Amino acid sequence: MVAHSxxxxxxxxxxxxxxxxxxxxxxxxxxxxIDDLHVAIPPGxxxxxxxxxxxxxxxxxxxxxxxxxxxxxxxxLDGEDIAGLRTRDVAKKLGLLPQSPVAPEGLxxxxxxxxxxxxxxxxxRQWSSDDAAVVERALAxxxxxxxxxxxxxxxxxxxxxRVWISLTLAQGTDLLLxxxxxxxxxxxxxxxxxxxxxxxxxxxxxxxxxxxDLNLATRYxxxxxxxxxxxxxxxxxxxxxITTELLHEAFGLRxxxxxxxxxxxxxxxPIGRTHVQLAQPATKS
Amino acid sequence: MIGTDVKPSVAPGVRLxxxxxxxxxxxxxxTCLLAAAAFLVFCLSIGVGDFPIGLPxxxxxxxGRGEHVDEFVVMDLRMxxxxxxxxxxxxxxxxxxxxxxxxxNPLASPDTLGITWGAGAVAVFGVTVSGGAAAAAxxxxxxxxxxxxxxxxxxxxxxFLAWRRGIDxxxxxxxxxSVSAVMEAITxxxxxxxxxxxxxxxxxxxxxxxxxxSWDEVRVALWGTLVLLAVVTCVAFQFKPxxxxxxxxxxxxxxxxxxxxxxxxxxxxxxxxxxxxxxxVAFVALVAPQVAMRLARCPTxxxxxxxxxxALLLxxxxxxxxxxxxxxxxxxxxxxxxGGPFLVHxxxxxxxx
Lengths: 285, 353
Known about the structure:
Chain A is of the alpha/beta class and 285 residues long.
C-alpha cells in the first residue's frame, strides 16, 4: 500500500486535512438531511462518525465520497473541489465501501477483489501483472487468500466483509471510507473486522467510518465526529469527546462513562430503566 | 494474519502488445464452440429445402468458390432467411444479457420490459387500421420501422417511469410488465375490432417468423445490429463493476447512470430491430443469457456467449420448424418449446448438485 503521501498535508487553507466538507447542505428531494456542515478529516488516523439513527452519518460519508452531490458548499479532497474532479481520478485517491453491498451469486472472491483495479484499467489494458500483484496483496492483507476461489455468497458474514474490504484495498488508495463495516456481524466478527481496519491504519491509511456501537467507535478511533440532526455536535479524541453530558445531548441517553478496564479509552455504560442497581452510587454511599 | 503463506489464485492475464485481458479458458472454449455450432446450423439451414445442397457445397459457396447454380439458391434465395435468423438471435441474446445484467434479475428481458409488445401493438395498428393520420404515418415509414419506433418509445417510457433517483431492478420489471399488459390489451382490442383478413395477417406477424425475408429487410437489421454491438463492446468495460451495485461502481470511478442509459438504449434498439425483422419471437431474450451463463459457468450473463446462444436457438428452431415437424410452425413457437425445457433442465441439474 502507498503510505504517508504528503500531497494531502498541504491544502490551500493550511489545515492538515485529506478530506473536508465546507458548509455542505445535502438532502433528498425537498428534505434537507445535512445543513451547512463543516468537518475536516485529519490524515493518518481513524475517524469515526457517530450519532443517533437518521442524523445524517451515512449521508455525510456518501457526500464525502462524492456519491451524493451537495446542494450547497464543497467537499475538498487533497486541496481540490471534489465536484470538479473526474470520477475516475476520485476513485484513484479514495476507496469506498458502501453499506451491505451484494455480490452476484457465484462470483468468486478473487474475481470480486479483481474488480477493485477498475480505476487503473482501460479498455485495452484490462489486466496487467501489476493488477495481479496488488490483488494478491489485498487478499493476503485481509486474510482471505485461502478463500480466493470460493463464491462470495458461500462465505460467512465476517469473511464476506473482509472480502469487500479487500476490494477497496485493491483499489490502491490510502484513504478509505467505510459505511458501517460491522453491520450484521456478531461481536467477535465485528472486533475481527475492526482489528483489520486498525492494521490498515497502521500501514498508513487514513480511514473514515460510520459505526453504530459507541464503545467500538471509542476503542478503535482517534478522532470522533459526533453528529445530531444533520450537524456536527463535537469532534476530537474519544477521551475529550465522550462525556455523560455529550451522550445525553447527542443521543438523549443516560449513561455512565468509566475507564475501559482493558484499554486507555473511555467506556460507555448505558443506564436503562431495568436491571440497574448502581446507577446513582452517590446516593447510596 | 491467516493464509499469507498460500499463494492466492488470481486469474492469469494475457498480454498481446499493449492489450491485456484476463484469460478465462473455459469461457473462451464455450464461446468458440457456440460460434462453431451456430455457423454449422446456419449452413445446414441454407442447405435444406426443395433443392437440397450438401454442407461442403454450402460452405464453398459462402466462401465464394461455389458453382453458379448453388450461388443463386444460396446467396439470393436462402441467405436472407438464414442471416435473419442469425442476426435476430444475436440481437435478442445480447439485448437480454444487457437487461438482465442492469436489472440484476433474470426476469428482465425485452419481453417483460414492454419493448416486444410495444413494437407489436404499433405493427398490429399498422396492419389493421387504415385511414387517419397515424395510420398514414405507419404506412409511410413501413411496418418494420414503425414497429422499431413502437418498441423504442415503449422502452423509453418504461425507463422514465421507473426512474426515481436511480433505477431499481424490481421497479423496472414491475413497470415493464404493467406497460406490457397495456400494450397487449391494445393489441387484443385492435385485433377484435379489425377486419378478419387483416387479423390473419397481424396474427402471423405476432407469433414471429423468418418466412419470406428479402435482402432489403435483412440489411437494415444486419447493419443496425453491427453498429449497436460495436457500441456495446465499447461500453462493456465500464459496465463490469456495475454487477456489484451502483454504489460500488461509483466508488470505482464509473459514471453508472450514463453507462446504464447507453446500454439500455442499445438493448431496446437491438430488441426493436429483432422484432421489426422477425416479429416478436418469444423467449429467446429471456432464455439465451441464462443458458449462456450456465454453459460458460459465469456468475453474470456473458454478452458474446448470450448472443451466440440466441443465434443458435433461433436458427436451430427455424430448422426444426421447417424440417422435423409435419406442419409448418412459426419459429416463435419452437423457440419457446425448445428453450423452455432446456433452461428448466439446467436449473434442475444445478439444484441437484
